[in-house]
Automatic annotation (TrEMBL):
Lineage start: Bacteria, Pseudomonadati, Pseudomonadota, Gammaproteobacteria, Alteromonadales
Gene3D superfamilies registered for this protein in UniProt: Winged helix-like DNA-binding domain superfamily/Winged helix DNA-binding domain
Entry keyword annotation includes Ribosomal protein: no
Protein name: MarR family transcriptional regulator
Annotated ranges, domain HTH marR-type: 51-101
SUPFAM superfamilies linked to this entry: Winged helix' DNA-binding domain (SSF46785)
Length: 165
């Protein structure tokens, strides 16, 4: 094993780099889901899926409403909206009362893509359940519990406690 492989393996087993492992998992899932998207005819990137799913569930929404619904930063949602607009999957309309506010809704093609995404979600749920059974841990529940735990007691608070140990 060369030095690069040794280092990669050491990171894989170093709990201080748990966030890197989660990011690696994210990249693998995103890459493999993109293959499924292509096979299904889904034309938008995996990264904008939750935005499409949300807009598929409402008639229209502002950027702020989307960000709140997805618990995502405004800037990230803005980038996703730009991607969806370039793909002609969204329609923009101005608020009749507040001209500064813009609403977004799925275009007819966007609605078709939204239906495909819902179909994908059914298969993805089965696939993730399969992974959970294979590894003997409910991955979805584990991630939700981890997120909840960090909201209750932040990583920085936990880290600060190590200074006193």
């Amino acid at each position: 094993m060369n030095d690069t492989n040794k280092f990669a393996q050491s990171l894989k087993h170093n709990r201080a780099f748990t966030a890197k492992l989660l990011f690696d998992l994210h990249l693998i899932i995103t890459e493999q889901a993109a293959d499924v998207y292509r096979d299904m005819g889904i034309i938008f990137p995996v990264s904008v899926s939750s935005t499409v799913l949300y807009l598929n569930s409402v008639e229209q929404a502002s950027l702020t409403q989307i960000a709140k619904a997805l618990s995502q930063p405004h800037q990230l949602i803005s980038q996703r909206i730009k991607t969806l607009l370039k793909l002609d999957l969204l329609v923009k309309s101005s608020d009749k009362v507040d001209k500064r506010r813009t609403f977004y809704s799925l275009s007819s093609v966007g609605k078709q893509q939204g239906k495909l995404l819902k179909e994908y979600c059914y298969g993805a749920e089965v696939a993730f359940n399969n992974i959970s059974e294979e590894i003997g841990v409910d991955l979805h529940e584990l991630l939700n519990q981890s997120i909840d735990s960090l909201h209750k007691n932040s990583f920085s608070n936990r880290w600060k406690r190590t200074e006193n140990d």
